[in-house]
């Protein structure tokens, strides 16, 4: 859930000084939140400093320099905000007001910190940071609120870009749907491909920037649909143009367009945080989340016997047991699992009855014996719920493993292709019935896996998989019927191939999902951040002949298996190190976890598994990984400003090493490679360089953790601000490309300015 600026973990320190941004502003992205962190942190330190008894000349001079630096930095920040306002007239009024407020607050802070020239800064005759506590807090609050407003308004521009891009895609889709000539279709689809690439990049950046992991997973699911549907739309439309009177071809094409529109709509819902007709999103409750909440309530009785009623507890258990009926009523649950689930459900009711009985007695008479009995009842109830959780997990995952193994040969799909080419309508009808049965089995599997997935993002992935099987099954059937009616049609054959590949791809993804669900259950690994990429330039050219994606053969995979294994071990090491940090929201931890998850995806690629299907996907992932590493290096530089002088050189040296390694990796990933041999060499180099970065990361995380702890234990003091860098304001601008000016004057540009507001440093 999005939080207000000062309620997020990164800025919570402000509350102790009475700071707070506008409560009506919600921050939904990491870029905005992380931009505010240094500002909140440093102003809080400035305000708290006035309570210290010793005020040497050196300290007073430092305070004055800080105030001037704040004012200067805010002035330049406001300049960028005003440029954004001029580029976007609909936001001009709001942005201008926020900029005026920020400028006024900056000037006030400069006046209140103008203390170095005064003989007695504590004297009431001069209003300063030492005499006007209310004034400085008010100015700081106004500054935070107005800067937050500017950032959130700038973020609206990013949202507007995505909506505009979606509208262009929808408009071109309408043209594609109505087109009647192949030549016209070729021209419009070329435009559509370019628009989809633009939409992919905008939504990809947004996905990675979202704070809410649930929304991030929903965005990934929607983008995955759009990725697969782009090729489906191509072949389904071509088939319809080739066979305009074929009803099954029309049904097939309409299904693709409908699914793409739904996915586009969901992206906008996530980006704008809205639902159609104002309805609230009702997330289905899983057995895992129900048991977790139930156990928390039960264990809470140790601290408070009166915080909930016995009716509430009974209702919670009833809801959980109702959901277990999804397992006991399923035709695919084994007899043994069904019996165990029913037995444990009965036992859970009995344990709760016993717990309620002791609990009621303890409310009336809190004796030592009764409290011991209550503890025993709590333990037995929780143990029973753990056994129930373990049983439904075993039932769901064993069913999934069996089904995935059984369907791994894709016999039904192969039979549909063969009988379709033969024009054997009777045989096609027979195999479509078998595919429908297979679809029902897989849909049921996804529903049961959702109950035991363990995390909300994995729950969403299960729901997405269920939807994919529900939709793709009938589409394969309509494509097979079209081929059977036109057995000599090459485009009808190609169309069936595309839908069958989507089915096979989803089955492959289910194997990965099952492994992740088991990992979460066993506590081996938390939820992964998955970075999906949609079609990139060059995937669809004007003559509609798709480039064949390059995949590694078994011999090449064997060669890089050792490197991949090393990468896997390093991701485990990095995960272990990040888990040791007390503050899981720390920027260094966040970047470290992101890099670990991306490296894990690259490891899966070396095994021919996971969501990185082609070498191009791997290279794209390596670029994002290198970018994340560069962001981590920036965080290390920020940390170096807070640590002791004798610790700083080592940290800066490691940061420079990281930047150098990431630049090398980025250069390797972007380098062109022609031919199979050159491509494999590039793959090998990317994974090797990624491994080297991960090795360095394993050394950096414990070092940073140690320095932070050491810093907390030490004494703080004021230091002057680093000089403002004039050239940062124009970074990335290009006078010859006016269409990119909005991107330049966006969140990233503002982020540079606030990040440079490091006018205080704790030693």
UniProtKB/TrEMBL annotation:
Gene3D superfamilies: Alpha-catenin/vinculin-like (1.20.120.230). It is found in: Cytoplasm. It comes from Molothrus ater. It comes from the Eukaryota. This is Alpha-catulin. The keyword Cytoplasm applies. Its main location: cytoplasm. InterPro entries: Alpha-catenin/vinculin-like_sf, Alpha_catenin, CTNNAL1, Vinculin/catenin. Keywords: Cytoplasm. GO terms for molecular function: actin filament binding; cadherin binding. GO terms for cellular component: cytoplasm. It holds the Pfam family Vinculin. Residues 7-18 have a biased composition (Low complexity). Residues 1-20 are annotated as: Disordered. Belongs to the vinculin/alpha-catenin family. One of its GO terms (biological process) is cell adhesion.
